[in-house]
Amino acid sequence: MPDFSPVDLSVTWLGRTMPGCLYNASGVWCREEDELEAVRASAAAALISKSATLAPREGNPEPRYHRTALGSINSMGLPNRGFAYYLDYARRYDYACGKPLFLSLSGMTLEDNLTMLRTLAAAGLPAIPEINLSCPNVPGKPQLGYDFVATTEALNAFDQAWPGRYGVKLPPYFDQAHFAAMAEILNRHPRLAFVTCINSIGNGLVVDIDSEAVAIKPKDGLGGLGGDYVLPTALANVREFYRLLPGKDIVGCGGVRSGREAFMHILAGARAVQVGTCLYHEGPAAFARIAAELAELMQAKGYRKLDDFRGRLRTL
Ligand code: RRO
User: Which is nearest to 114 in space by CA: 156, 79, 85, 84?
Assistant: First the structure.
């Protein structure tokens, strides 16, 4: 007898249940209110705003995003409406819709991040901060997540400024010693409830043979890679932090363009899955398609819910 019972894609974490496991990666379809509303109105199960700085920013000069056959390269440079804009959206957001709202914060200084966290705390909203430790595209500013001393200092300060649960967006790591060192730091913070792995792979270079030129203008062409290029690196980061951070949730981000990659992320240990490059190219209709593909794949494998296979990646 075939099993026609519906597949359940809902996710319970952070003290709440959301109706599915997919939402947007910060930076994509979330800089303006109408974009956030389009994600909310789609089959996405949550939404996150563009990384905010205290003051609005124009970002880097164009062209600053380029699509390739295998994904994308970007050096947006943190264009955003400023923290007050996203806080205002969070104040008006209908949390009863069941889709959690995450606010991505990426202050230009630690003090700016603390100011945003304190202001958000004072507002008393159910919005959850995801603090970006990994923007690769502000000229002259290294990615915080690659500086373990600065990350330690930042997390200690976040704990003082923010009373609730929060998450961080990490850059990709490429060495097991770095996974271990970062995990040891993250494990000192019980209210750090989730880590999002990964941000784009920073400072790649896409070259156009015809013009013999780089593809984007900022930083002489260097930019963060997304899409197919990053899937194995993203999966490795999800897997390693899933094993090294017991009690914390991992949000998978990187290379998800169908139900298959979403399944891989969850198998590696992801609680929820963000979609970046694919959302940029396809728009919010991507969420319904990917969710349907994931449900179909689960059905074919006899899984009814994500807990049936989350983290159960087999080794040989
Ligand atoms: O705005 C950007 O250039 C950007 C950010 Br803040 C980030 O975290 N990751 C990325 O690929 N681009």
Answer: 156
Is the CB of residue 223 below 6 angstroms from any atom belonging to ligand 1? no
pTM: 0.98
pLDDT digits over 247-286, tens only? 999 999 999 999 999 999 999 999 999 999 999 999 999 9
Nearest to 72 by CA among 63, 81, 80, 61: 63
Separation of alpha carbons 214 and 44, rounded Å: 34
| Amino acid at site 153 | E
Residue 4 predicted with pLDDT over 80: no
SS3 at position 38: helix
**The one catalytic residue among 21, 30, 97, 135:** 135
Give the count of beta carbons closer than 10 Å to the beta carbon of residue 145.
25
> 297 alpha carbon to ligand 1 midpoint, in Å?
32
So where are the chain's domains?
A: 11-59+79-201+227-308
Residue to mutate, 57, 66, 78, ligand 1, most ligand atoms under 8 Å from C-beta: 78
Name the band, by pLDDT with cuts 50, 70 and 90, for residue 58: very high
For the CA of 64, the closest atom of ligand 1 is: 3
H helices present in 103-216, as ranges:
110-123, 148-161, 176-186
* CATH hierarchy code of domain 11-59+79-201+227-308: 3.20.20.70
Which atom of ligand 1 is least distant from the CA of 77?
3
Contact 124, 132 (CB under 8 A): no
Tokens read off for 216: 């984007």
